[in-house]
Amino acid sequence: MNQIPVQDVTPDKKKPGESQSLYAEREHIYVKDARGIFKKLRSLSSAIMLIMFYTFSWLQWNGRQAVLFDLPERQFHVFSYTFWPQDFMLLSWLLIILAFTLFFVTVFAGRLWCGYSCPQFVWTWLFIYAEKWTEGDRNKRIRLDKSPWNKNKILRKTAKHTLWLFIAITSAVAFMGYFSPIRELVPDVLSWNLGPWETWWIGFISVATYANAGWLREQVCIYMCPYARFQSVMFDQDTLIISYDEVRGENRGKRKRGLDYKAMGLGDCIDCKNCVHVCPVGIDIRDGLQYECVACGACIDACDDIMERTGYEKGLIRYTTEHSLNGKKTHLMRPRLIGYFTALVLMSLAFMYTIYSRIPVELDILRDRGQLFVEASNGNIENSYMLKIANKSQKDQIYQLSIEGLEGIKLIGNPVIKVEMGALEDYPIRLQIDPRYLDKANNTLEFKLQSISDENITIIQDNRFIGPAPRR
Fold this sequence. Notes:
This protein has about 475 residues and is α+β, with helices and mostly antiparallel strands. It has helices spanning about 35-55, 90-110, 110-115, 120-135, 140-145, 150-175, 180-190, 195-215, 220-225, 225-235, 245-250, 275, 300-310, 320-325, 335-355; strands at about 60, 65, 65-70, 75-80, 80-85, 240-245, 315-320, 360-365, 375, 380-390, 395-405, 410, 415-420, 425-435, 440-450, 460-465. The termini are far apart.
C-alpha cells in the first residue's frame, strides 16, 4: 500500500558536547483573514454546527425537551426516541459507523473533518473572528502586541478576553443544557442558583473552551489530537489533498509587472507568504504535505486571490492528488474506498432498521430464588415473580399480561399493568397450577406483554415454572 510521505520538523543534529531541548517554545500565530470559496464553505459549515449546538436543546417534543441526556434518570431522549443504558450497544454501533465515515472521508479527501466540522476548529475560528473584531486584522494585532501598554491596548485586550469568556461561558451553558433541562438551567445561571455539579461542569467547560480555542488553538491539533498522527496511514496517492504545485511555482521570487518572469527563471509563486499568514496552524504548504495541515482551504483562497490580482492562472495551491501532481492518472474509485463505502452503507442500513423496528418496552422477569415453589392452601403449586417493565415510549402505556406454555396455569393478580412514560415499574405476580398438569419439575413459560393502545408494542420472554418432581 503506497502512502504519502508527511513532512515533519525534526531538530538539527546536535554538535558534540552540546545539549538540545526537545521542547520548542510556541510562536504566536497571527492569522490573516482570507476570502474565497473555501472560507464561505467553512463559514457555512461552522454556522450550521453552531446553530444546531445552541438551538437543539431548546426544541420541544411532546411536551419535553427534544434532546436531553437525563443521567440521573438514566434516560436519553432524542426527539421521538428514548434510550436506556440497556441500549448501550446502539451507541457503540453508532460510534463504529461514525468511525467508518471518518475513514471513508479521509481516504477520499483528507482531513475534511478537521477543517470544516471539528469543534476545536469551529470554536477556534470563532475566537479568531472575535480577536479580529476587537484588535483588528493581522498587521494591527502584531503592532498592538509590540506596542507598550496604554489605554488603547488595555481596552482592546479587555474587550477581546471579555468576548472570549462570554463565548466560552455561553458554550458551556449550551452544552450543559443537553444534560440538565435548558429552560430551567438558564434562569438558574442568571440568578446564580446552580447545584454543585452544574457549577463544576459549567466552570470546567468554560475554562477548557477559553484555553483550547483562545490560547492553545493549533497546539491541540498538533500535539493532543491522535487523528493528526495516524491520518497519513490512511492517505494514498489518489487521496484529494491540499497541495502546492511545485513544478509550476518554482523558483519563487519577487518580480515586476510586465517583465518576462519565466525568462528570469522564476515560477508563478511570487513568495508573498500569504498562504502562510492565513494558515491557522502556521505551516507553509509549499514545504509539502504536513501532518499539522487541517485542510481548511485558507491557503487556497489566499493564493487564488494573489494569482487573480497578478493575472496568473488560479490553482497554484489546490485540492489535487499526488498522482495528478506527478502527471499520472487519478483513480478515485479504488478497492479501499469502495470497501469503506460498502461497509458504511450496510452498517447504516442495518442501524436504521434496528432503530425503526425497535420495540419501546423492556421486560425483565426475576423468579423468587428464595424458594423454588410453595404449595398453596388449595393444593396448587405456586411460583412468585417480579416483573421489571420499562416504558421506552413517549406516552403512558397500559399493558395486558398473558401467560402461555402450560395448560391450566393461572395468574394471581391484575393482568392489566399501567406504566407511565419513561418509567420503570416493578410488578410482582404469582402463578399457580394444579399439580396434575405438571409432568416434569422444570417447565418453560411464555410471558407476553402487549400494549392495549398499540398492538405493535409487544414483547415476549421465556422463563421457568418450578414444581415438585412427578411421582413415578
